[in-house]
Amino acid sequence: MPNERELVNNILEGREEYFEQIVDEHKNKVYNFVLNIIYNREDAQEIVMEAFYRFYKDLKNFKGHCKISTYIYQIAKNLCKDYIKKKKAITASLEEMENFIQTGTNSEEIYIKKEESRQILNALKSLKNGYKEAIILRELEGLSYEQISEILNENINTVKTKIRRARQDLALQLKDMVRSDAE
Amino acid sequence: MKDCNEIKNLLNEYIDREIANRAEIEKHIEACPDCATELEVLKRVSSSVKQGIIKDSLPSSFNQKLMSKIRSKKESKPSFSFFGLKPAYAFAAILIIFGIFIFFFTPVKDKFINPKQPEVVAYFTETENQQAENIFLVSHNDSTEEEALIDLFADDYNL
Description:
A: mainly alpha; B: mainly alpha; 8 helices
């Protein structure tokens, strides 16, 4: 399998199959990141498409200064910021949020999981955007602090602080769930 | 030896495997129930987020739509280019070249002409000529006609 520099060179020579290879590898990861920030499927799909389109368009300027995935996440993150600025706030309705709640397999499990998922989703939704971006990147894909700092274009210590504060906020909001028998 | 506050500040890095000296924290946790509880809470928060985070997949038509978008933009790209420059830069380059051409091929006397000169000419023809005519009408048989005209244009000719 060619390395990232070779992949980019092949695409620049007009071999679109290599671009599709990149798309297939990263599209759902980037989509889930965007979806967990804006909570709207259609708009998230548009943003991911625009992110890959811009990546393709600017490929000539991609000097390999970071990983391809980092570069695509950066574009998607900036598009999310523009989207939020335009919308002023993320106003997903309760019904829309219900669509995202994952359920279990039997009826009792479905109820417990649904209730827990609802609480977690609401807690995540209420986080500040900066904290949310950092914790989603960490928990969704297990990205390193260094990769997160590159994507968010922030100092690594800022990322550490954001992740710490995000978990502190979540621990407060989900205290019945996370503190019940931990103490 | 780190105290509880210092250890608590490092617990997130510990669970995210972003810290080299894990043994120091583990040793502290074994002896400190308060920090052990804090670690357990953070681990539960982390697994709750993993559980509650939305996971979805893009529709199968995504790649096809993306490639169509790329191809349609490629086709609608403007074909105009000037020495490989984009239209806006090409237009600016053409304007500059045109400006240089005009500058070098304009005769020197036209380039440095005094812009006020036409006003003086106009003044001369409309006002002073009228005065000169009046003088002539009033004193056409008078011997002072010539002197009056000299007075009229004295300033202009430093007479």
